[in-house]
Specification:
The mean pLDDT is 92. The strands form five sheets. A ten-stranded mixed sheet has the order 9-7-5-2-10-1-11-15-19-20, sandwiched between helices. Strands 14, 16, 17 and 18 form a four-stranded mixed sheet that branches. Helix content is 32%, strand content 21%. It is globular, with a radius of gyration of 22 Å. It has 428 residues and is of the alpha/beta class. Helix 3 packs across helix 4 and helix 5 (153-173) crosses helix 6.
């Protein structure tokens, strides 16, 4: 049975949560394989809006088992705050499973994140300040604290001491901050242990057994392809691999078990934080897309930078992730725009490039080459078939399909679960 990867194809905020939620009505397990509470999903069900950060979007589907995979870094305080908020709204959360191998975001990670950003000044990355980068740094440096460590106080204390020995030197002598106390940190972490214990499992085994039993598993990547630490616009990226390959590593599901790789992409483009963005708009149209599309971060409330659809990025993401399908979201936001430009290539110092530049410097200086398509005035939020769309909207979708190197299988025409046009099933 299928293991399906759902991945953002731009810089995040494309609508992965809605797509996973739609799939969740027909799947058995939904896995978050990377990231932390730095990247959120907004899901609208029956007119009710849910903002999810650490929890997989599938948690809102009653027959789905939601899983936080080994590749995630978990802020336990944020996790239980989110669980409590869902429970207060009547949502079920007792079926959540968390990998024993997932790493923990400790308060000193957040401290380091914030002071490091301030220290960088004009070279700041634009992180959320939630300690995600420092937690992944500790993981790579073999100084990390894992979920399983909370159930052995002796091991936990050893790991906290080892991690803080270096960090306190840095905090006190470089950043002029007070040292972090080992006992306070251990006590902080232990307060979550008993509530956490029933949720912890060997999720790698659980998911593979589920596939063996004929269950359907969806892996929903956080962030997006252009924020991937290897394949994104480095250094303005996240600290994990939110691509299809990263979903395998972060869930413990082997690549040969993946049957569909689904890219989520907006009908225009947005980005949060610093970094190059060739199609960014600095005029009234950029503000129009921001306001009409509700382009504000789920976690931070930061306004998203907005620009036209970038087919070069779409082709690159399709290639890196091996996409079998694209889900095009927020097509309705473009209604009422007379002419809609699409970036089909870049001009770099007078040279036309049709694919992603190898050099980050070239990408930073790339000027979009646009092809313009006629827009439509009709409200399309009630469309439920491709034929319901105005002719110009159909032509726009078909043009994006041709330019992006992957079929547009689902089209979003509004935020609600039901506001989707399915051209090709993502499960069959």
């Amino acid at each position: 049975m299928p293991a399906i990867v759902v991945v953002g194809a731009q810089w995040g905020d494309e609508g992965k949560g809605k797509t996973t939620d739609i799939l969740g009505t027909r799947v058995d397990y939904v896995v978050k394989p990377n990231g932390g509470n730095n990247a959120g999903h907004t899901v609208v069900v029956g007119g009710e809006k849910y903002e999810l950060k650490l929890l997989p979007a599938g948690i809102l589907s009653p027959n789905v088992t939601p899983v936080i995979g080994n590749g995630v870094v978990v802020n336990l305080e944020a996790l239980f705050t989110e669980i409590d908020a869902l429970q207060a709204r009547g949502a079920r959360t007792d079926h959540l499973k968390i990998s024993a191998n997932a790493h923990v975001v400790v308060p000193f990670h957040q401290t380091l994140d914030k002071v490091t950003e301030r220290f960088l000044g004009k070279r700041a990355i634009g992180t959320t300040g939630r300690g995600i980068g420092p937690a992944y740094s500790d993981k790579a440096s073999r100084l990390g604290i894992r979920i399983q460590d909370l159930f052995d106080e002796s091991i936990l204390r050893q790991k906290v001491e080892g991690s803080l020995k270096q960090k306190n030197e840095l905090l006190v002598k470089i950043y002029n901050r007070r040292a972090v106390d080992v006992d306070e940190t251990v006590d902080y972490l232990l307060q979550f242990a008993e509530r956490l214990r029933p949720m912890v499992a060997d999720t790698e085994l659980l998911l593979n057994q589920a596939l063996d039993a004929g269950k359907v598993v969806v892996m929903e990547g956080g962030q997006a392809t252009m924020l991937d630490v290897d394949h994104g616009t480095y250094p303005f990226v996240t600290s994990s691999n939110p691509t299809a390959g990263g979903a395998c590593v972060g869930s413990g599901i082997g690549p040969t078990r993946i049957t569909r790789s689904v890219g989520i992409i907006k009908a225009y483009t947005t980005r949060v934080g610093a970094g190059p963005f060739p199609t960014e708009l600095f005029d009234d149209m950029g503000l129009y897309l921001q306001k009409t599309g509700g382009e504000y971060g789920v976690n931070t409330g930061r306004p998203r930078r907005c620009g036209w659809y970038d087919a070069v990025v779409a082709r690159y993401a399709a290639r890196v992730n091996g996409f079998t399908d694209y889900v095009l979201t927020k097509l309705d936001v473009l209604s009422g725009i007379e002419e809609i430009p699409v970036c089909v290539g870049y001009d770099v110092d007078g040279v036309r490039l049709d694919e992603m530049p190898t050099s980050q410097s070239d990408f930073h200086h790339a000027t979009p080459v646009y092809e313009t398509f006629p827009g439509w005035k009709e409200d399309i939020t009630s469309a439920r078939s491709f034929e319901d769309l105005p002719r110009n909207a159909q032509d726009y979708v078909l043009a994006l399909e041709r330019l992006s190197g992957c079929r547009m299988s689902v089209i979003g025409v509004g935020p609600d679960r039901e506001q989707s046009i399915v051209r090709h099933s993502l499960l069959d």
